[in-house]
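Archive entry: two folds, one per protein. Generate the first.
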Amino acid sequence: MGKLKRLIRKSKVMDISIDYNGEKINFNLHQELRVNEDIINEQLKDQPTHYGFLLMLRARLISKLAQAKKDKSERHSELWQEYREETNPITGRAYTKEDILAIIDNDEEYTELYDTVIKLSEEVDILDAAVNSFEQRSYLLQTLSANTRKQV
C-alpha cells in the first residue's frame, strides 16, 4: 500500500463537516467515493443523487457567501461613514484613513462578519473538491460498467 493511500485512510482531511442553516452535514469523502464492483449498477443509480445533493448544497452556500460578503461590505461602509465625519478625541483632528481602517478591523461585528465569509468560503471550496471527486467517480463507474459489459 502506498504512502498516500495510508495517509488518506488515517487523515481527518477526508472527514467533511458543513454547517447549513443549523444542520450539520457530515460524511467521509473517502468512504463515499469508494467503488464496489459487486454493486456497480446500484452505485451508478445512486451517483446522480449524491452529485446533485452536493451541487445543491454548494449552490446554497454560494448564495449565503454572497450575502455574507454583502453584509461585511455594508458594515465596512457604515463604519467608514461614521468615523469619516468624526474627530479623533486624542488628536482633536479628523480620523485618518489608517485610523478608520484600524477601527473597522477591530470592530466586533465586522470581525464576526469577516469570519463568516472565511468559513463559508472554506466550505464552498471543500464542496468544490467533493463535487470534482464525484465527477471523477462518475467517469470511473462508467468505465467499469462498460468493461463489465464487454466481458459478458
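Generate the second and append.
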Amino acid sequence: MSFLIPSNSASTEPIKGYEEGQQIELQTDQPNIMTTSLGSTTFTIEIVKRLATGSRRHNEVSVVRILHESGAESKSFEFVAKFFDHRFSPHVDPREWPKGSQQRSAAYKDAEVRAYKLLKPLQGIDIPIFYGEYTFQLPCYEGILYNRGSVILLEFINTSTLYDIRRLNLTFDKLALKSQAFAILNNIHSHSVYHHDLVPENLFWDNSKPKLVDFEQATFRNEDTKDLIEEWIALDRGQLISALRYYGIKDERPGIPESFIGWL
C-alpha cells in the first residue's frame, strides 16, 4: 500500500470520519468468501452505524451493508468494517515509527489480517468471522494527496461488550465468562497468536459465550521470537485477569496472588 504525500505542504482541512449513509467502493486482489459470494472483487458498502470513533483512536469501526450496483441492498446481513486510515493518527513517535502514521496504520492492519488468517479454525466460535481485506480511495484535500486506505470486514456481533455490561449494570454468568475467557486465550495461544490488548471493550458476551476482537497489536510465534513466548503469555493472562477483576471476578488458580492488579 502506497501513499503520496507532498513534503512541502500539509492539509488544513479537518479530517472527517466516516458518516452514516456514506458509500465507499472496496476492491481486493485476494478472492475470499465474500467476493466468491458476490461474484466480484469490487463492491460498494454503505455505513449503517458508527461503532468506535473519536480523536483518541487511530482508526474507525462501523456497521456496514453491501449494495448492488443499483444501490439496493444485496443481502440483509450487516458486517463490521474496520478502517485503517492513517489520517486519524498523524502524530506518532518517530523513534517507534520512523515512516510516520502510514507505517503504523499498515503495521496494525497487517497484524490484524495475519491474526485472523492464523485463527481461521476459531472464527465464528471464539472470534468474529473474517471476510477479507480491501482497499478504498481516500479523499484528496488541498495541499495533500492520500492514495489508498485499507479496511477489513468482520462478522457483526450484535451484543454487549464487557465494558457495556458494566456500564449498563446488566447481569451475566460470571463463572461461565471466567472459564470461557481463559479457554479462548489458550486457544488463541495454541495457534501462535498473542493478543496484547485484552480490555473490556474487546470482549463481547455473545449468546452466553465470550468472543474476542481487535488483534491489531498481536504478536506471533516464530524462530526469532521463541524466547519471548512466556513473556507474551504472561502479559495476555495478566491483562485478562485485570479485566475480569474489574467485574468482581477473581482468578483462583494457584500462584496468582490476591493482590495482583495487572495493568488496568
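Annotation attached to the second fold: The domain at 160-245 is CATH 1.10.510.10 (Transferase(Phosphotransferase); domain 1). The chain has two domains: 23-155, 160-245.
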